[in-house]
Amino acid sequence: MNQDILDQHFHEEENRIVVINEAAKEKRFVNYIIDRILFMGVLYGMGYLLSLIGSEAIINWLIGVDLLTDILVSNLLYIIFYTAQEYFLDGKTIGKYLTRTRVLCRSRRGQPPTFLQYLGRSAARVIPFNTLSFLGDRGWHDSLSDTIVIDEASSQNYLSLDK
User: Fold this and answer.
1) Which end of the chain is more exposed for a tag (fewer CB within 10 A), N or C?
2) pTM, full prediction
3) 163 burial class (0-12, 13-18, 19+ CB within 10 angstroms)?
4) Distance between CA atoms of 146 and 105, rounded to whole angstroms?
5) Does residue 92 or residue 14 have the better pLDDT?
């Protein structure tokens, strides 16, 4: 587990010290597996609901959709799935909740990313071979969006005793 302190600094306006530790790759992998299973469940659930309430035309379209349309629609839903979770759940997905990790802005340590950074992270996830980019130091969806995933259990937010 990576316990290196990535940042430790004093926030004068809030009178606190922040210590941020990056999440280990093993936790990030677990996040990926949990979120991927959940996404597939959502897709299958949507398909099932459409088959129950949809017209025959919708069902025939779903059955006969071509590969390119399938890829485009699946990627769009994937981007929406991740962006919505991270934005509305304060930098977390279901996988990140279970592993106690969170997304933060890298250049503004300790601050949440903007909506556009969440959207950028999610869009970068559909880049072919993004998953393999984690064989290096940082994944593309982190580096391209200027974000970092922290381990909440080992990161700390201390109140200063000076004031």
Assistant:
1) C
2) 0.79
3) exposed
4) 6
5) 92
